[in-house]
């Protein structure tokens, strides 16, 4: 058997895919339903490997997202940082949960993330005016089991530890 | 965390973070191209597979349209000529023609909070901050950020955008401010008694020196005159099809007026 290669790119590549999914043009009506792909990828890695993907990673990814999205610089960075902090605080618990219970937690975390963004948008005077703003929490929750399984496969194939 | 709060405050105050954004966006703009490329390619495949009949029909339509346009252009040329002559008579130095450049939108979705799009032309092509962007039907927005190969456009229906406009019917001036949620424009601070009707067309007034004068901005779709309020609530439907057009025009307006940004664009 071939020895496990040191695949350092296995983690960045998932973030790259998450970025692409975040920026991919979608039909007009789906605009509020886009799941929080980057947050989901971050939750997975910080839950499994909190010593490799941590709050600092979340901050840098959030900053890149702010530049790409044209939002207030630091807005997504702050929201991701705080959310990932809590994920890392309870990563051992999250790992033990069955998939369905994990999904519920993801729903809560995405909602929390959205809540921080909501507050910031409120501060700068353009809070979202539609209840659909909270839809990503639901779509992320529904997609979480698949994301989790795909990421698990990916992690095992490239033996990331 | 403290750093991100600091960043946010600085960015909101507009204090010198523009440069940071530009530097950060240089490596990221390559990424924007990467996302956009497959979508354009698929579109091209779709075009290549279009049936012959469809193309023939489109061709006929376009020819008819071109004929119409030519007729209109001829008329316009005459008018423009006359206008130039009259202006020359009045010793006015205003230029009618500006330099234009056609740019493509990159197929990138932004955050639903912000109405911005990304173009495939950047400071390499002389694009500068504050430059007006038009499409076939009207004013689309202006450039707020440039990197060497991309630039970011703030659409006129964004909350942070305001365009000085003028009624074509009677010359009433106002400011059209965007609304990111309804994708419409509002006229702000317009007194109740002003003469504005539904279906009036508003064009850029050229005040503020950002947008060249005379390009269509929008059509009035509703007016609410609530006597309890100080101002009338007037909604405009933007003439530019910011959700549909793929190609846009970058305009170098009257080069004498906007002197500082030109220098930045040329470097």
Q: How would you characterize the overall build of this protein?
A:
The complex is a heterodimer of chains A (161) and B (267). Chain A is mostly helical and 161 residues long. Chain A has one domain (39-152). Chain A has helices at residues 10-23, 37-48, 55-69, 75-89, 91-96, 99-123, 135-157. In chain A, α1 (10-23) runs antiparallel to α2. In chain B, a hairpin with an 8-residue loop joins β10 (216-224) and β11 (233-238). Chain B is globular and about 50 Å long. The two termini of chain B are 36 Å apart. In chain B, 28% of the residues are buried.
Question: Main attributes?
Answer:
heterodimer; A: 161 residues; mainly alpha; B: 267 residues; alpha+beta; Thrombin, subunit H; 2 domains; six-stranded antiparallel beta sheet; six-stranded antiparallel β-barrel; 4 helices; 12 strands; globular; disordered C terminus
Summarize, please.
The complex is a heterodimer of chains A (161) and B (267). By secondary structure, chain A is mainly alpha-helical.
Q: How large, in whole angstroms, is the Cα Rg of chain A?
A: 16 Å
> How would you state the average pLDDT of chain B, rounded?
78
Q: Please, what is the oligomeric state? A: heterodimer
CATH architecture descriptor text of the largest domain in chain B: Beta Barrel
Q: Give the count of structural domains of chain B.
A: 2
Number of strands of chain A: 0
Distance between the termini of chain A: 19 Å
In percent terms, what proportion of residues of chain B is strand? 25-35%
Secondary structure topology:
The complex is a heterodimer of chains A (161) and B (267).
Chain A: H1 10-23, H2 37-48, H3 55-69, H4 75-89, H5 91-96, H6 99-123, H7 135-157
Helix pairs in contact in A: 1-2, 2-4, 2-7, 3-4, 4-6, 6-7
Chain B: H1 2-13, H2 17-48, H3 52-89, E1 99-104, E2 116-119, E3 132-135, E4 138-146, E5 151-155, E6 162-167, E7 173-179, E8 184-188, E9 201-204, E10 216-224, E11 233-238, E12 247-252, H4 259-266
Antiparallel strand pairs in B: 1-12, 2-5, 3-4, 3-12, 4-5, 6-7, 6-9, 7-8, 8-11, 9-10, 10-11
